[in-house]
Amino acid sequence: MKIRKTIVYQKDTKVFVYENRKEEYIVVAIPEIEWSCLISYSETREEIVKRLKESLSKTLHENAEELVERIYAWTREM
């Protein structure tokens, strides 16, 4: 599991990124805003970004797109 820090609502926030290689998925969680998402290896970049934007837009009312790009980059590091 990787732990990254980012700014959410003008506050340092931890983002947890867990990869399960055997079952081919990644889980991203931000406990501070009670949000998480499961990303399958088979999903395309467009599918992932679209789902993340839709999901985070419901929780965050600002800067969702910037956070989506960060999360996508962190999941590709794994």
Description:
It comes from Bacillus methanolicus PB1. The chain has 78 residues and is α+β, with helices and mostly antiparallel strands. It has one domain. Helix content is 37%, strand content 37%. The chain has helices at 45-59, 64-77; strands at 2-8, 11-20, 25-30, 35-40. The chain has a four-stranded antiparallel sheet, covered by helices on one side. α1 packs across α2. The longest helix is centred in the middle third of the chain and has 15 residues, at 45-59. The radius of gyration is 12 Å and the shape is globular. The model has no long low-confidence stretch (mean pLDDT 94).
Whole-number count of domains: 1
Shape: globular
What Rg is obtained from the alpha carbons, in whole angstroms? Answer: 12 Å
End-to-end separation in angstroms reads 9 Å
Class derived from helix and strand content: alpha+beta
- Tally of DSSP β-strands: 4
Strand content: 35-45%
Uncertain spans = none
Arithmetic mean pLDDT: 94
H and E order: EEEEHH
Please tally the helical runs, counting DSSP H or I stretches of 4 or more residues: 2
Strand order of the largest sheet: 1-2-3-4
Helical content (DSSP H or I, runs of 4+)? 25-40%
Largest β-sheet summary:
4 strands, antiparallel
Summarize the structure.
InterPro entries: Uncharacterised_YueH. This protein has one domain (2-77).
Topology of this structure?
Elements: E1 2-8, E2 11-20, E3 25-30, E4 35-40, H1 45-59, H2 64-77
Helix pairs in contact: 1-2
How would you describe this structure in keywords?
78 residues, alpha+beta, 4-stranded antiparallel beta sheet, 2 helices, 4 strands, 37% helix
